[in-house]
Automatic annotation (TrEMBL):
Transmembrane segments annotated in the record for this chain: 7-30, 42-69, 90-109, 129-147, 159-179, 199-223, 324-347, 399-420
Organism, scientific name: Prevotella lacticifex
UniProt topology in membrane: Multi-pass membrane protein
Pfam families, A to Z: MatE
GO BP of this protein: monoatomic ion transport
UniProt name for this protein: Multidrug-efflux transporter
Keyword Phosphoprotein: no
Keyword hit for Transmembrane: yes
UniProt GO MF annotations: antiporter activity; xenobiotic transmembrane transporter activity
Compartmental location: Cell membrane
Entry keyword set: Antiport, Cell membrane, Ion transport, Membrane, Transmembrane, Transmembrane helix, Transport
């Protein structure tokens, strides 16, 4: 392949995924905006438990990853039968893990906001929000695994279209469940709109139903319609193969540990922010949501990198692995540098959409502009990490993420927060993301992430 052909392929795979990532973030953006209209306490009640909800979602993603990386390697080796078997094992094992996570979430939902430092005025709503989203774990597992399996098979279109539809569904469900029955004016017409008026709980219910809305068609396309993965293409009865589970655990365990400690670090970071008050908690949560609009293109390019590198590993094409890795990382850094510039310029508007409270807007604008300078290196860490996942190299990247988070970000944040408040916490974050990006660039250039390309891949007739 020529350089232009590789670039066209990267862009063709990235664009649908970028669209899907952006619409996914818009879903959370809309959630935050709707809840933000209810006031600072409602926003803080979500913000205090948000890192814990990310942790559960990340553990579900780590479980999925152990299976879709194997599938990518088998697809690259043209062994579609084993790719389908891996997928079947992924649903069974993944649902078992998701049910365990759901049970843990139900148990810890009540004491969690208090343990994280939330005040009595937000603990009730925070508990309800976390409890409802914990019950979404099995649905999220099926949605995530189905989407990722389709992507590594080369089908970016269906997951992307469904992600956009999920965003619109989330808006509908939020309007229905968050707000009470009310009268709105549309084109000089006064229309009565029904609503349940559940507030923060309504936001959680809306998100759960949006996941369910996406889960069903994704499962249908992955299991019944995919030209590579559809189960009807397999011959013979299903047979349990513990080796797939062992391989998935070897791939996913370092990632699960990383997510556990990374999101644990986010929880500690929230505990550092909590004493700064409800305005700081809400501004921190809104700024994270606003910033995610800027780094989602990096994750979209990362999806393309995982697919292309994973299939190149399966085909034993070391030259393609290296070329796709370098091109996707460079493209990600360019795109996110531009997004960082936009974030710096439009920070007041980005936060203004989310909250009408002046104190929250001022703090949110300040921290977003601090973070804007770290976006190119954040891109390097996102895409290079995705490259490593595609190559089955998960241990060292996990240590890089953990080390930078715990020894750079949290150390600096704990030292700066009492003196500089929330801006100090975000300066620590920007510094850590820059360090992490540099470490991943070093990992990428040294090439040790490609060592597994030499490993033999078992195939079946």
């Amino acid at each position: 392949m020529t350089g232009s052909e590789k670039l066209n392929l990267i862009v063709a795979l990235s664009m649908p995924s970028i669209l899907a990532q952006i619409t996914s973030v818009l879903m959370f953006y809309i959630d935050a905006s709707m809840v933000g209209s209810l006031g600072a306490e409602a926003s803080a009640s979500i913000g205090i438990v948000e890192p814990a909800t990310w942790l559960f979602g990340s553990l579900v993603s780590a479980c999925s990853m152990g299976f879709y990386v194997q599938a990518a390697h088998f697809i690259g080796a043209k062994d579609f039968a084993q790719a389908r078997r891996v997928m079947q094992h992924g649903y069974i094992f993944g649902l078992a893990v998701a049910l365990i996570l759901m049970t843990v979430g139900i148990v810890i939902a009540s004491p969690l906001p208090r343990l994280l430092g939330g005040g009595a005025d937000i603990q009730g709503d925070a508990t309800t929000y976390f409890l409802i989203l914990s019950m979404a774990a099995p649905i999220h597992l099926i949605e995530n695994l189905s989407s990722q399996m389709l992507k590594v098979s080369g089908d970016m279109r269906h997951p992307s279209v469904i992600a956009v539809a999920m965003c619109f569904a989330d808006v509908f469900f939020n309007f229905l469940f968050i707000f009470p029955t009310r009268e709105i004016t549309l084109l000089a017409l006064h229309i009565k709109v029904f609503g349940f008026g559940l507030g923060v709980a309504g936001a959680a219910i809306g998100t759960l139903l949006a996941y369910l809305f996406a889960c069903v068609p994704l499962l249908y396309y992955a299991v019944f319609k995919s030209k590579i993965l559809a189960w009807r293409l397999s011959k013979g009865p299903f047979r349990w193969n513990a080796e797939y589970i062992t391989s998935a655990v070897k791939l996913g365990a370092p990632m699960a540990l990383q997510y556990l400690l990374m999101n644990g670090a986010q929880i500690v970071s929230t505990m550092i922010v909590a004493p700064l008050g409800n305005f700081a908690i809400a501004a921190n949560s809104f700024a994270v949501t606003a910033e995610s609009l800027c780094y989602m293109p990096g994750y979209g390019i990362g999806d393309a990198a995982t697919t292309l590198v994973g299939q190149s590993v399966g085909a034993r094409r070391k030259d393609l692995c290296k070329s796709f890795a370098h091109m996707t990382v460079i493209l990600g850094m360019i795109v996110m540098a531009f997004m960082g510039l936009l974030m710096y310029i439009f920070a007041p508007e980005m936060i203004g959409i989310l909250s009408p409270v002046p104190e929250i807007r001022a703090l949110g604008t300040q921290v977003l502009r601090i973070e804007a300078f770290a976006e190119p290196f954040f891109a390097a860490s996102i895409v290079a990490y995705s490259v490593c996942i595609g190559a089955g190299d998960t241990a060292v990247p996990s240590f890089i993420n953990l080390g930078s988070m715990w020894f750079v970000r949290l150390t600096l944040a704990a030292a700066l927060a009492p003196v500089y408040g929330l801006p100090g916490v975000w300066f620590a974050m920007a510094t850590e993301l820059t360090v992490r990006g540099i470490l991943f660039l070093i990992r990428l250039l040294r090439g040790k992430w490609m060592r597994k390309i030499e490993d033999p891949i078992k195939t079946t007739e």
